[in-house]
Design a protein that fits this description.
Length: 81
């Protein structure tokens, strides 16, 4: 599975950091950051999700009030949101 995080959409509510430890607060920027991700385009970050962290990653995406987090299965199909 893969996660994409649109940092420009993030509003700094930080719900995601409570669901998955790979999201951390960046209080200076007022946005979350996705640990271990690479920028794939302007303010869009992506990384693979370890198998044992899939549930937490999905929950982080589901609690994001602005849908800044998208989860894709191994075939590239969007599964969250």
């Amino acid at each position: 599975m893969k996660v994409e995080f649109d940092r420009s959409t993030c509003t700094g509510i930080f719900n995601c950091v409570h669901e998955w430890e790979q999201f951390v607060e960046d209080r200076d920027a007022g946005k979350a950051s996705l640990v271990g991700s690479k920028e794939v385009s302007s303010d869009l970050y992506a990384r693979e999700i370890p198998e044992d962290e899939e549930f937490e990653a999905e929950m982080a995406a589901r609690v994001c009030p602005v849908d800044a987090i998208t989860i894709y299965d191994d075939e590239g199909e969007q599964i969250v949101p």
